[in-house]
Amino acid sequence: MSEIMDYSTPAGIEADRDKAAVTVRTARLDDAAGLLKLMRAVDVETPFMIYGKGERGLSVEDVRNLLMEAGLVRGLAMFVAQAGPELAGYALAVGGGLARTRHCVRISALGVRRRWWRQGLGRAMLTKVEQWARDMGARRLELETMAANDAAQNLYESLGFELEGRRRRAFLVAGSWMDALLMGKLLGD
């Protein structure tokens, strides 16, 4: 059994509106119900998630299993941003499992509750993912975002991600086609 790695350190973020300190930490098994609630809320609050309202067919037990796997599998991590008792954001990162992709970490999901947008939570979680990836020896981060999500693109670019490609008509959102942008960041030589 692998050691469960904890990267929890205070992010040092203060939200003007709520004045609650935010901590970015590794998700725990007892976060499962709150994390599922968070994911479903984010799905409703933004058109930029892969899941639409009501499409996330997970149960609390499914989320517990994911968190258990993340604690046991070296190349899988789930981080949460916690503001007081509330989970306000989450990030899921998956490392390559094969010899030819082991150096890559894919950020599979990044979601933040609307009331916490532009408070630094996304940046803090991505910084935590990068720290985790570097600690694992990764040399590359990659992600995909919807082309219309300017705020996310600006955040990713500010953290050193570069546009590497476009998948045309990758998503159908509210009856309109949306392209996916592929972005990557090299972590050094």
Could you please describe the fold and organization of this structure?
The protein is of the alpha+beta class and about 190 residues long. Helices cover about 25% and strands about 35% of the residues. The chain has four helices and eight strands; from the N terminus they run ββααβββαβαββ. Strands 1-2-3-4-5-6-8-7 form an eight-stranded mixed sheet, with helices on both faces. Helix 3 links the parallel strand 5 and strand 6. Helix 1 packs across helix 2. The two termini are about 30 Å apart. The N terminus is likely disordered.
Low-confidence stretches: 1-17
- Strands of the widest sheet, in order across it, are 1-2-3-4-5-6-8-7
Shape: globular
Beta-strand percentage range: 35-45%
Distance between the termini: 31 Å
By DSSP (H or I, 4+ residues per run), the number of helices equals: 4
Determine Rg (CA atoms, Å). 16 Å
Helix content: 25-40%
Counted beta strands? 8
Whole-number average pLDDT?
87
Q: Report the biggest beta sheet as strand number plus sense, adding barrel if it closes.
A: 8 strands, mixed
Strand and helix order: EEHHEEEHEHEE
Helix/strand-derived category reads alpha+beta
Quaternary structure type: single chain
